[in-house]
Design goal:
There is one protein chain. With about 450 residues, the protein is mostly beta strands. It has two domains: about 1-190, no CATH class; about 225-440, no CATH class. Helix content is about 5%, strand content about 40%. It contains four helices and 29 strands. The strands form four sheets. Strands 1, 2, 3, 4, 5, 6, 7, 8, 9, 10, 11 and 12 form a twelve-stranded mixed β-sheet that branches. Strand 18 (about 280-295) and strand 19 form a beta hairpin. Residues about 190-205 and about 445-449 have low confidence and may be disordered.
């Protein structure tokens, strides 16, 4: 059977169609430059593609989506280029089963199997026979080394990985007739919110928002503006909130010069989850807060309240020029899914800032005071904080190091954002206690920068 191969700058997920078709020469140039492009495989008489390959070497990523005759994705493969430039890790595969031809793509009731693999030999297989609405069975996959990795093919020599799925025993490949692209009409096919550059991904092709983008780790968002009075934001629940002056709760002593950010309730014996080097010293603890007004049915009127959106250790008054996600030495951002995070883990909706040099005695005081409720604790070593997202402070008498615990809005993993000055020095460490609020269209501070 003849398989037709075409190239494009992107793949429109909603339309199931290539966006901005390009000739093979341009695709080859983009491949060599590491720029994103897609390869589409089709056969005559079939409207849906056989498979779509999504390539972006600069993002260490190659994806593969396989479609059935109804145009539904039935298999997805996520491959990552790591330290060995000659092979790809089969990082994640997902397979969907559809009960009938009329079943919608990704229906919550569709059975699916997900396999996640890591370069160190670890892995996880998750079977969901009832789809998202049912339970899950998690096991360790038995995968050979040659199944975990795939040799990196050169451009133009990729095999049709879905050939067996589609019953193609000896497919032959041809490139379709290359028609010139009318740039004006290509852009005019999209309007409204679907048109324009996706600045969060840093792409410059102007592809519509419905197009696939290479996976990127979570971005910090407008963290600095959460501490700037007058900025207007929304948290998704309240249409308009106004940032007020940051609330200073006290200070934190870090004499060791290593700031720990961790979940104090889930200590695994290996110390804090994350650490950030800072100059030894005493730093302000602050809460970013936003005020909003809403109609309260219980009070039968308008109510104004102020909520905390983030907590931070303010290391320096200099503005942050850049933000980065804190991570451990074994955290590889090349393995993250789109919007993926590294962070500290909490099982009790609690995080903490602490002096890593005194971690063990500080955690012991935390457990005695908050968990065991020891009434005989020295008030110089244990202090509860009221009316704040910060809950308590513990102090190690021998080193002078301190721990300040704060509440989050739930369990799970919370990223830690490190702000740096133009010179690269740490100026602040921030944790969002919930999701990142979005700036409103005119979300600038009324009082100026």
């Amino acid at each position: 059977m003849v398989v037709e191969v075409g190239y494009a700058r992107a793949w429109d997920v909603r339309a199931h169609a290539p966006w901005w078709p390009i000739p093979v020469a341009e695709a080859r140039e983009r491949d060599a430059a590491g720029l994103p492009y897609v390869v589409v495989y089709r056969t005559a008489g079939r409207e849906a593609p056989l498979e779509v390959r999504l390539v972006s070497w600069r993002d260490h990523y190659v994806g593969l989506w396989v479609y059935d005759a109804q145009g539904r994705r039935i298999y997805e493969l996520d491959m990552r280029l790591l330290d060995d430039p000659e092979r790809l890790l089969r990082r994640r595969t997902v397979g969907w089963s559809y009960a009938a031809t009329e079943t919608a793509e990704f229906d919550d009731r569709c059975p699916r199997v997900t396999v996640e693999l890591f370069p160190d030999g670890r892995g996880r297989r998750t079977e969901e026979p009832g789809g998202r609405s049912g339970g899950a069975h998690v096991t360790v996959p038995r995968v050979r080394e040659d199944e975990r990795w795939m040799d990196r093919p050169v451009f133009g020599e990729w095999p049709l990985l879905s050939a067996e799925v589609h019953g193609l025993t000896e497919p032959s490949f041809v490139e379709p007739y290359e028609q010139p692209v009318d740039e004006t009409s290509q852009r005019a096919a999209y309007d409204g919110d679907d048109n324009g550059v996706d600045s969060a991904h840093g792409d410059d092709d102007g592809a519509p928002a419905t197009c696939w983008r290479p996976p990127r780790p979570a971005q910090p968002g407008p963290l600095t503006k959460l501490f700037r009075p007058g900025v207007r934001v929304t948290d998704g629940h309240h249409p308009e909130m106004t940032v007020v002056e940051p609330r200073r709760i006290g200070t934190l002593r870090v004499p060791s010069g290593l700031l720990a950010v961790s979940g104090p309730d889930s200590d695994d014996g290996d110390g804090p989850h994350l650490t950030v080097p800072v100059p030894p010293g005493e730093y302000a603890l602050e809460e970013a807060q936003a005020r909003h007004t809403y109609h309260c049915e219980w009070r039968q009127g308008q109510v104004t309240r102020t909520d905390t959106t983030a907590v931070r250790v303010l290391v320096d008054d200099a503005p942050a020029a850049t933000w980065e996600m804190a991570r451990r030495p074994d955290h590889d951002p090349r393995l993250l899914p789109d919007g993926g995070i590294f962070g500290f883990v909490t099982d009790g909706a609690t995080g903490c800032f602490a002096d890593a040099g005194a971690w063990e005695p500080l955690i012991a005081l935390y457990e005695k005071g908050l968990i065991e409720g020891d009434p005989d604790l020295d008030p110089d070593a244990y202090e509860e904080i009221s009316d704040s997202m910060y809950l308590l402070r513990t102090r190690d008498g021998s080193s002078g190091g301190e721990l300040a615990a704060f509440a989050t809005t739930g369990d799970g993993t919370y990223p830690v954002w490190v702000g740096r000055s133009r010179a690269g020095a740490v100026v602040g460490v921030v944790v969002l206690v919930e999701g990142m609020p979005e700036l409103l269209s005119d979300g600038e501070a009324a009082t100026g920068p």
